[in-house]
Amino acid sequence: MLYGKEHVRRYQETDGAEGHDWNNTTVLLLTTKGRKSGRPYTTPLIYQRHGDDHVVVASKGGDPDHPEWYKNLKANPDVEVQVKGDKFKARARTSSPEEKPELWGLMTRTWPDYDEYQRKTDRDIPVVVLERVT
């Protein structure tokens, strides 16, 4: 099973031929700029399409604290995304309270564990929308 740095490396080397399809769902690579270091960090994340946008969840497995990649994009929402061989710049934003129920449903259909992660924490797990920048 691919995960973490090895997942990123194999995904990048194969344009997603290895790593895009993972555990019966789909994975993209999200690159954020470190809010303290300014260095790029790339994270493999489960995603789904919603219209022209890509949607990811800042779950961290139900941890009480947000994942580092989410903290980074809150500080700088200009990110890079790779879906298979398609690499593009995007603007990240947290879904609004009005759109979150629909997007949460979309994501839990592809990864039902998100509901369990939410039950494990008092933190409101954010759903993030990645909008391609043209």
Can you give keywords for this protein?
134 residues, alpha+beta, Pnp Oxidase, Chain A, 8-stranded antiparallel beta sheet, 4 helices, 28% helix, globular, oxidoreductase activity, F420H2_quin_Rdtase, Split_barrel_FMN-bd, coenzyme F420 binding
Helices and strands in order:
Layout: H1 4-14, E1 21-22, E2 25-33, E3 40-46, E4 48-50, E5 53-57, H2 68-75, E6 78-83, E7 86-94, H3 100-110, H4 113-120, E8 127-132
For the secondary structure, the number of strands is 8
Structural class: alpha+beta
**Name of the CATH class:** Mainly Beta
CATH homologous superfamily assignment: Electron Transport, Fmn-binding Protein, Chain A
CA(first)-CA(last) distance = 34 Å
Return the CATH architecture: Roll
Unreliably modeled segments: none
Question: How would you characterize this protein structure?
Answer:
GO terms for molecular function: coenzyme F420 binding; oxidoreductase activity. Belongs to the F420H(2)-dependent quinone reductase family. This is Deazaflavin-dependent oxidoreductase (Nitroreductase family). It catalyses: oxidized coenzyme F420-(gamma-L-Glu)(n) + a quinol + H(+) = reduced coenzyme F420-(gamma-L-Glu)(n) + a quinone. The protein is α+β, with helices and mostly antiparallel strands and 134 residues long. It has one domain: Electron Transport, Fmn-binding Protein, Chain A (Pnp Oxidase, Chain A). The chain is built from four helices and eight strands, in the order H-E-E-E-E-E-H-E-E-H-H-E. It has helices at 4-14, 68-75, 100-110, 113-120, and strands at 21-22, 25-33, 40-46, 48-50, 53-57, 78-83, 86-94, 127-132. Strands 1, 2, 3, 4, 5, 6, 7 and 8 form an eight-stranded antiparallel sheet that branches. A hairpin with a 2-residue loop joins strand 1 (21-22) and strand 2 (25-33). The N and C termini lie far apart (34 Å). The model has no long low-confidence stretch (mean pLDDT 95).
